[in-house]
Automatic annotation (TrEMBL):
Organism for this UniProt entry: Rhodocollybia butyracea
Transmembrane segments: 158-180, 186-208, 327-344, 350-370
Keyword list, A-Z: Membrane, Transmembrane, Transmembrane helix
Origin organism lineage: Eukaryota, Fungi, Dikarya, Basidiomycota, Agaricomycotina
The protein, known as: Uncharacterized protein
Length: 481
């Protein structure tokens, strides 16, 4: 009988050596997606590989000397550990308030990634020279988000289907192990299902929020420009909206309310922020608009998202050590699982080891799917919806392509029309020789006398293009000075 060959053979796979390490990176990344998908925190009941890797990574969240000794770390910030923070944004120069930030925050980094990935709606090349491409994106911030808001996870039917398939497969394999009296395999699969399920419940029950500082009363408009070596992003909006971009951050609240009460209980009665991404596409297709200056057609830069409905949340209580210690307990449980697998799986027969390995393989495949999802894209969709960024009918927000850095700086001055235009030009173009100063004064005079232009309108695009070409023709004498 084939069954006898599997149960009575002396051959040993010894899968215990890979059970705690195989698929560890995928498992850690999969766990970090738990706050993005609705119900994901309830769907962790499968025998996940990489238990020791997960324990070492997320055990650092626990506070206290005991946990610090078991899981070496310095009490990492939860948001950074889950890939929701820690990225530095680019330099920001305000047009009116005088703010000059050498580095912005994580949300500005996400917005810059959003603009870099957008296709150019209309390529506008000013002048004859083209040393390097300078892209200028214009983002109209139509609403100022509340200083604190809860972010609702998106519903993904396909992800739920894969999770249920993985769970039922693991349970079926566990039952088969019991039917054929493979008790070591049965016990280790059941322990793996329990340990991973509890860990998902505890880690995933945290509340994901967005927060930023409240601007002081009477603050001027927050218009400004985000600058790097090759691109500029013009932000047009009030101080609150710009503060959200330049200094906002994600927050994971592990308070007792979120962990003991669960997500549904703690969030009852709040309006939900639904993700704009469908099928994880960050840049939905816009209407194709013909480019009068080129035979090619490009997509709009417009930040696309559905209108959001959000409510301010009361300031969350800091995550208490006792609550974070629950994560430490989960990490300890995962470590115990790893040790027991090392000891008991070799005692099982070949058939039991094959069943155990099969449950790991199915779970690894599901973890690999979750790890393949772009977490930055999911975050970009969240902030796009919070800022209510969407295309305006007949007024697509363009992304301009200029020939020189100086031409791009002058273009930004035309769009923002700051009260202190010279100061803005000095921040973007630090050259202050006599020739450059004269050139800047001419630009300041022209900007002040020019009518207000709205980037994206057909007539304004034509005027801006013509002026950019004239300015670019006058740049050479200044640059040669």
């Amino acid at each position: 009988m084939p069954q006898d060959l599997l149960t009575k053979t002396s051959f040993n796979l010894d899968t215990s050596g890979i059970a705690g390490f195989f698929g560890g990176e995928e498992a850690v990344t999969a766990m970090s997606t738990v706050h993005f998908f609705s119900g994901r925190w309830l769907l962790g009941w499968y025998n996940s590989p990489g238990s020791y890797t997960i324990a070492k990574c997320y055990g650092r969240l626990a506070r206290g000397k005991l946990w610090r000794g078991l899981f070496l770390g310095d009490g990492s910030d939860p948001a950074e550990l889950f890939g929701l923070g820690g990225k530095k944004g680019l330099r920001f120069v305000a047009a009116e308030s005088g703010t000059n930030l050498a580095a912005t925050g994580h949300l500005a980094y996400l917005l810059s990634k959003r603009c870099q990935g957008a296709e150019i709606e209309a390529q506008i090349i000013a002048g004859n020279r083209r040393n390097s491409c300078v892209n200028v994106s214009i983002v109209h911030l139509r609403c100022a988000p509340e200083t604190r808001r809860y972010v609702e996870s998106k519903r993904d039917s396909f992800s739920i289907f894969l999770a249920l398939l993985t769970i039922f497969t693991n349970i079926a394999v566990c039952i088969v192990s019991a039917v054929y009296r493979q008790w070591y395999s049965f016990a280790m699969i059941l322990l793996g299902i329990t340990a991973n399920g509890i860990s998902c419940l505890v880690i995933g029950s945290a509340i994901l929020e967005l927060r930023h500082s409240q601007p002081s009363a009477g603050s001027p408009r927050g218009d400004g420009v985000i600058i790097n070596d090759r691109d500029m992003i013009v932000l047009v909006g009030d101080e609150g909206a710009v503060n959200f971009v330049t200094g906002g951050s994600f927050l994971l609240d592990f308070s007792s309310k979120s962990i003991s009460g669960g997500k549904d209980g703690s969030r009852k009665g709040q309006d939900l922020v639904k993700s704009a991404a469908q099928g994880h596409n960050v840049f939905p297709n816009d209407n194709m608009i013909p480019d009068s200056g080129s035979t090619a057609t490009r997509k709009s830069l417009s930040d696309v998202a559905l209108p959001s409905r959000v409510e301010s949340l009361p300031s969350p209580s800091p995550s208490k050590p006792s609550n974070l210690n629950k994560i430490g307990a989960c990490a300890l449980l995962l470590t115990v699982q790893f040790v027991l697998q090392l000891l008991l799986i070799p005692q099982s027969s070949l058939f039991g080891q094959i069943l155990f390995l099969f449950s790991l393989a199915v779970s690894w495949a599901y973890n690999s799917y979750l790890a393949s999802l772009d977490r930055e894209s999911l975050q970009i969709n969240i902030i796009s919806e919070c800022l209510n960024l969407r295309p305006v009918a007949h007024k697509p927000v363009p992304k301009y392509d200029l020939a020189t850095w100086t031409g791009a700086a002058v273009f930004v001055a035309y769009v923002l029309r700051p009260s202190n235009c010279r100061e803005l030009l000095d921040q973007i173009i630090p050259n202050n020789t006599t020739t450059w100063s004269k050139f800047k004064e001419e630009i300041v005079h022209d900007v002040k006398s020019a009518p207000q232009l709205v980037a994206g309108e057909k007539d304004s695009n034509t005027v801006i293009t013509q002026r950019a070409q004239v300015v670019d023709a006058n740049i050479e004498p200044a640059e040669d000075a």
